[in-house]
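In response to reviewer comment 3 from the previous cycle, which asked for concrete evidence that the modeling workflow produces usable outputs, we include below a single protein chain processed end to end. The sequence was submitted unchanged, and the resulting structure tokens are shown without manual editing.
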Amino acid sequence: MTAQPTADSGPTFRPGVVVADKYRLLEAAGEGAMGTVWKAEHTSLGHFVAVKFLHGSVANAAEPRSRFEREAKLAARLGEASRHITRVTDHGVTPDGTPFLVMEFLHGEGLEVRVKRERRLPMTLVAKITSQLSRALFVAHAAGVIHRDLKPANVFLCDSPEDGGLLVKLLDFGVAKATLENDENQATRAGALIGTPNYMSPEQITGGTVDARSDLFGLAAIVYRMAVGKAPFGSGALSELAMRIVATDPPAPSSLAPDLPAEFDLWAKKALAKKPEERFQNARDLSDSLSMVAGISATGSTGSFSAAAAERLALQLGDSVGGLQSTLGYSGAVAPAVKPRSRAPLVIGAALGAVCLGGAALFFATRGAHEPTTNAGTAAAASSTATAPAVSAAPKPLPEPTPSVIAEPPPSATVDKQPEPVKHVVQPKAVGAPKPTATAVKPEPTAAPPPPAKPEPTGDLWKKKDEM
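The workflow returned the following structure tokens.
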């Protein structure tokens, strides 16, 4: 049976109607402002699909039809790249002129339904949902696509035993902006608001430049809603809501939900910053930081964070490393491994200065008595007068220890033979300086590599296509 609606009544869909000669409608699955979704069965393959129809009232309007077609194209392309984006497999127009698109059928419930029923979600679940949504945005943004309408109603929580019981899907790219496509229809009309006000960024409200960081603001607003139990800027008339989004900061999460970690206040402050440059700059950083604040890693394990990862999070949130220990479950031994890094340039600079001055003094005090036993470093210095090297030898040890400093231990026996000049030179703490230098300089080569090295397992996880 093929749908045969009359031109006056508009399209009429009911169970049993076959669309495009292959999709048999079973039951209505949902309805929104722009269209209706039906559960259907493929007549030849037998699997279930979701068929979305554009409402008859807007089906003939240019802008809604353009958005509908854009959603089909973008979702089809992005769904191939990420399993966290609902895949579109077909689209067309019914004989009466109603546009439709065919999507994978999802089993579960919308995030909007979940938060209305439970009000607040556990922080670990919030981090898990955010991680999967961030992967969807990571793929979309890499393809030059900005969603522009992130909200709980566009997030679906699928039942998936293979994914620990939960697979998150991002829906509705109808108002998405494909920045890499030269399409005049992408431009937003002056004065028009694209998105849902409660979760819109300040730049969307004011008509400013919208980029991927606007999506990250919307995602952060969803996170706030899941964790706190209410939207960050409340509700009400559009003018009042817009004013709060643009000019006021939302309440600190812990002031509304005292059980939330203090670090989440810092995370929310950064993620919901008014200026895009003050927010997280990509979906990965936003997600990884939230996972750490929630006390879990990107792979779902707990207590598996390196000192470098803690330091990176502290820098992102503007917090002290010590302030994160209780949340991340660190022992007291972690702080010394990370905190000295901020003072390392001063310590190392002072130590190297002491090494240079003390080493030069010892070298020239003992050089005359031990000319035959000098190694390669002292032999090279002996090629000029005793006063000329004193000027050039001091600066050279600054970048790295020079042979002249390393060569000092062998002449220690001669120091005993000439106690008077040596004691006079060593007395101002010239010998004591090298020892702290060994402890101050030695950790620096090992402290520098961890930041790029430790986050790599997470980076590899993000790059795996089956995880996107």
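Residues 344-445 form one domain. We consider this sufficient to address the reviewer's concern, and the full set will be provided in the supplementary archive.
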